[in-house]
Amino acid sequence: MFMPTTLPLPTLRAAFGERLQENVSLAPYTSARIGGQAEALLTVTSADELAKTMSRLWELDVPCKILGGGSNVLVSDQGFHGVVVLNRAKAVHFDKGSQPRVRAEAGVVIANLARRAASHGLGELEWAAAVPGTVGGAVYGNAGAFGGDMAGSLIRAELLTENGRESWPVEKFIYGYRTSVLKRQSLNVVVLWAELRLEHSTKEVVSVKISEFSERRKATQPPGASMGSMFKNPPGDFAGRLIEAAGLKGTRIGTAEISPVHANFFINYGQTKAEDVRAPVNLAQKTVAEKFGVNLELEIELIGVWE
Q1: pLDDT-derived band of residue 1, with 50, 70 and 90 as boundaries?
Q2: Annotated active-site positions, please?
Q3: Of the candidates 124, 277, 306, 276, the residue with the CA atom closest to the CA atom of residue 200
Q4: Which of 17, 188, 228, 293 has the maximal Cβ count within 10 Å?
Q5: Is residue 82 a contact partner of residue 95, using CB atoms and an 8 Å limit?
Q6: Are 118 and 203 in contact (CB under 8 A)?
Q7: Residue 137 near residue 68, CB atoms below 8 Å
Q8: pTM here?
Q9: By the 8 A CB rule, do 248 and 287 touch?
Q10: What is the per-residue pLDDT for 218?
Q11: pLDDT digits over 19-63, tens only?
Q12: What structural domains and CATH numbers belong to the chain?
């Protein structure tokens, strides 16, 4: 249940008109299918529209959050007291020259981008074919799999900052394992689009590699509604191995379960609440710390009001 809103709704209605939706459930927009309502929601369909929308929200000084593919996030049951911007900016342009590359807007699903590159006989993004989420989220969190990651693929990205639009080379993101300067410092910036390096290959070769990665992902990661990997892998180890060694693999609390397939995935088996997921999360962190002296750090991002 929402507290009385502090949003300047008349001003927002005047600024965005019929685009503004109010009291919208966020669960359908997340891969876990969990979460309360956003007080307001705006959908954008281009990088320019995203930039204009975010600039206006910053001018109005209202709390706002961008949501792309909805993976790697857990929205609280109390929802988000502000404006959620649903990023559906999906323009893609391939450059097939001697040094091939692709420019993709931040709302493009990165797995789909890898497959589109394959259809052009272009490789180097095969690692992304089984990665959930969007290009913007991948740039923000240095998404990766199977030995590849955004740090190795990104050439540059255009960001919206409080100073306007800026082009950042990959070095400026200061990437680390599943993190970047954007994530570490919670900078007030928005990823608009990214330029990624590719290499010439053949459709057949790239497609085979993508199929191999996809099959490996299916064999080791559970189906169903989840957020993706719950915890970052600690140095020299794996979060899933530690949770399994702690005897928690397959533990179910209500309709939330630590997957019996992969212990670093937490599955929603019904009308699961965000607080229901927090129970096994807290259990895993507490038990692993007690048994192995390792503090598991969340890989997912918590959105909304948490007590």
Answers
A1: very low
A2: 178, 229, 299
A3: 124
A4: 228
A5: no
A6: yes
A7: yes
A8: 0.89
A9: yes
A10: 76
A11: 999 999 999 999 888 889 999 999 999 999 999 999 999 999 999
A12: 13-87 (3.30.43.10), 92-219 (3.30.465.10), 222-300 (3.90.78.10)
